[in-house]
Amino acid sequence: MKPTYENAIKLLESRMRKARPENRATFSRPDPVTATATQGLKGLPSLVGMKEWLQLLGHSDNAVNNLNIIHVTGTKGKGSTCALTRSILHAHGLRTGFPKRVGLYTSPHLLYVRERIQINDQPISEDRFTRYFYEVWDRLFGQGVENVRQPRYLQFLALLAFHTFIREEVDAAIFEVHHGGEYDATNVISRPVATGVVSLGLDHVDQLGPAIENVAWHKSGIFKSGAPAFSVPQDAGPAEVMRSRAEERGTSLTFVESDESVPRVETGILGVPVQRLNCSLALGLSRALLRQKAPDQRITPEDIARAVDSVSWPGRFEVISKGKSQWFLDGAHNTLSLGQAAQWFASNVRATGQHIPRVLIFSHISDARDGVSLMECLAKALHENDMKPEHVIFTTYQETEEGSVRFDKIMKPPLMAFPGLCETYSSLWAKFDPEASVSMEPTIEKALQRARNIGEQNGAHIFVTGSLYLVGGALAFLRS
């Protein structure tokens, strides 16, 4: 197989497991004071093997630690907080020279896999991805390593990110946790410069546990001795668990409040109040890095303004204007994030001052979450924000009748029998709002075309949400 970008994508795809382990994890509720708990495991933790694989690649603990890593976890807002941290450090670096090169590792991607590994606001090029991919692949899958356990998809991508950032000699790197924290593949980082926790909520309960305290236990597993930990405000139960874990790990924990130096805006990524908190968290993390690595430097109001003005996070609180219509896209896929997305949509629509049709495009198909509950949460949130859509379109994750329009989509959405789930969604929405026009489309392409037709005469405000698969597919069309 020739070492091409296309073949690298095919090899990477081969490392995806067909399904999660079926054996259910078992948990006990942590004691609210000691945070002790029996944490059951479901399958082999993704952290297992990471250190050994890095050593096979020739990367010591010191090589990883020298990346000056900021490690971020939580339930809602990890990606945007990482993007804000990157943007703040990059703006500061443009003015001062440090950090000159900032790496960013996040997941999942929306349009192409290279989005997951970025340097200075840009995904790495196809050439660099291909070169570093095969350096890692040949070392871990080549001759002489047949009897060595080999990494799965997300483990491989994390290894590729470490390898890329070391080769590219970045001055700082921001790593988003894949899932949880304690047993996550990214938790091979032994000495981050700082760790951060965004808003916690109940999600992935089969893996993280039935109680919010279980979730907090897992997430705060990234805390490390000597690395200051920061968090947005949390509820009392999980906050106490986090404090106990910080004490156990020998580090400080600071719950950040909204920073007055963050600009107040009505639209964009900071148009939602929680994003101001996420930006405040990003500031705390950025300042912690500078205190350790460049103690004579300070982040200025100009740095913050430049960072906020330039930050973008595809598919998260994103607005695209096409003709007379505006498209509002957010990959919200849990109750916490859907409520925030509805609030963001409402504030942005009001800011336009236009009274044109509102259209919702929704899809959610998952074994891990109750799609009906998510749809009902969204309907309630839109109603509470006085932003009920006149038109509602339910669809699948399939982009076109022929399949995907993207070569390196990689993410394989779960299959769905159309119109089964869509009929359930449609029936429930019609009961919730009998005045709404409710329809179903078998593909994302057709759902977008129906929305375009609605806005053809006078325009429309079109809200696309419910899944990153849906938003990624929509962006593939809207950016073409």
TrEMBL record:
It comes from the Eukaryota. A monovalent cation. Its EC number is 6.3.2.17. PROSITE patterns: FOLYLPOLYGLU_SYNT_1. ATP binds at residues 316, 330. It is an enzyme of class 6 (ligase). GO terms for biological process: one-carbon metabolic process. It is found in: Cytoplasm; Mitochondrion inner membrane; Mitochondrion matrix. It catalyses: (6S)-5,6,7,8-tetrahydrofolyl-(gamma-L-Glu)(n) + L-glutamate + ATP = (6S)-5,6,7,8-tetrahydrofolyl-(gamma-L-Glu)(n+1) + ADP + phosphate + H(+). This is Folylpolyglutamate synthase. It comes from Aspergillus avenaceus.
